[in-house]
Amino acid sequence: MKPVFIDGEAGTTGLGIRGRLAGLPVTLLGLDDADRKDPEARRARMAEADLVVLCLPDAAAREAVALADSLGEGGPRLLDASSAHRTAPGWIYGFPELGPAQQARIAAARRVSNPGCYATGAIALLRPLLDAGLVPPDTPISISAVSGYSGGGRLMIEAHEAEGGPAYEAYGLGLDHKHVPEVASHAGLTRRPIFLPSVGHFRQGMLVSIPLHLDTLDGRPAGADLRAALAARYEASTVVRVVSSGATRLWPDDLAGTDRMELHVFADEAARQAVLVARLDNLGKGASGAAVQNLRLMLGLD
Question: Would you list the DSSP string of 101-116?
């Protein structure tokens, strides 16, 4: 049994990870409620763990890393579910489908950063197309996304679950959302993308959409070329699936409660336009499900 400590297990992501660990050969190291903010109590639990999962705000996650570092060479491996280390040197990005060698990198890493929910969808769509040379790195990219309100923290959840809660809200209108550097870095973009996130009046689920003008891309690809590149990348994945359904509409919560992700390519060849869409659960593949996928790799359970 592998000892695991979830630092911040009372939050949405921590509870989701805890629930997904049932049946796995791990021992969860807990803390009494009174000790959850006690640095020495947390440090003692870290010393007992093979792996520590950080489910904390960014500043608190950085402080937790310092606590783990104080244990020296005998300290635990770290899996950070915050956004504090997603582009930091020395951290491996925890998207196993990023490339052929990424699972091995995660399995061997001492420090892994769990991806953001929006970034997961955007990178899953873009990275294979950049690797295949179909989308140049300096392409102007716009990303729009809608998420369930459960990823917005306590105040947003309370607002949406109250009578008369908001139907929809766009945010991040300063164009400085914290997922933008993460998407640019791990998708391989050299031009900063425009990202417009929004929240709908549903608890879980997400759609991430990227429109493309096909005539502006190298080689003037067809929609079928984009779909083939995505299908080739994810052919062996049990988590990511490229869908060719002919759908004309998508609901963001169809994968709620799962850890899967679907990728769609919609194209109008006469107009030379395409829209890429990723559908996932913001709490599944977008958060807790991804963390457990990484945990299994890091502990050799896959």
Answer: THHHHHHH-SEEEPPP
Q: What is the dihedral of CA 143, 145, 151, 153, to 10 degrees?
A: 80
> In the beta sheet, which residues pair with residue 210?
276
Tell me, what amino acid is at 167?
A
Angle, CA 253 vertex, CA 247 and CA 259 arms, to 5°: 100
Q: How much is the average pLDDT of 124-132?
A: 98
What are the tens digits of pLDDT across the range 4-26? 999 999 899 999 999 999 989 99
Instruction: Just list the catalytic residues.
Output: 117
> Which element (helix H / strand E) includes 263?
strand 261-268
Question: Which among 116, 118, 169, 142 has a CA at the least distance from the CA of 275?
Answer: 142
Coil vs helix vs strand at 193: coil
- In the structure, what pLDDT confidence band is assigned to residue 175 with cuts at 50, 70 and 90? very high
DSSP class of 192:
P
> Which tokens belong to 187?
């998708």
Spatial distance between the Cα atoms of 179 and 208, rounded to a whole number of angstroms: 13
pLDDT higher than threshold 90 for residue 110: yes
Average pLDDT over every residue of 181-192? 98
Could you read off the pLDDT of 191-202 as tens digits, one per residue?
999 999 999 999
Using alpha carbons only, give the angle 83, 178, 210 rounded to the nearest 5 degrees: 115
Place of tokens 């420090």: 111
The Cα–Cα gap between 38 and 44 comes to: 10
Q: What is the pLDDT, as a whole number, of residue 204?
A: 96
- Cα–Cα dist 78/51, whole Å: 6
Amino acid at 56: L
Measured in whole angstroms, the distance separating CA 83 from the mean position of its chain's CA atoms is 10
Distance CA 173, CA 144 (A): 12
302 — pLDDT class (breaks 50, 70, 90): confident
Do residues 119 and 140 lie in contact, with contact meaning Cβ atoms separated by under 8 Å? no
Q: What is the pTM of this model?
A: 0.95
